Each structure stands twice: as structure tokens, then as C-alpha cells.
Amino acid sequence: MQQAEDITADCFVKLWQNSQIQIIENVRGYLHITAKNACLDHLKRLRIHVKKENELNWLSEQEQRNLFEIAEIKAEILQV
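^ that's the sequence the OP posted. Answer follows.
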């Protein structure tokens, strides 16, 4: 919900900034396209974040397995 409010506020800020530079004839269409693009950008960033988080989790699991294997090898050596 907060992200939607932030995107909406950003769209109105962009509208205000661009109206200073150029004449926007179709305000409703401008806001619609700006909001759509902002939502797509947000989803892209979210997808990248989730992907990186999954990669970190996978690397952490691999590290745990490696530590476990090292501990097993040490235990075998100490038993000999």
C-alpha cells in the first residue's frame, strides 16, 4: 500500500515538473502512462531483489554444506 502511495505521489511530482517544461494536453493519459511505467519499474526492481535474495540463500546453504563436510573430514582424521 505504501509503495502505491509513493508511486502516485511521484507521478504527480513528475507531472508538475514536466508541466513547467512542456504543455501536457492529456493529463489523465500522462498520469496513466507514468503510473504504469513506475509500477513496471517497481516490479522489475522487486524481481531483481528476490532473485538476488534467492542467490544469497543458495550460497549460504552451500557454505553450510561445505562447513559440515569439513567438520566430517576433521572428525574422521581425528578418529584415526
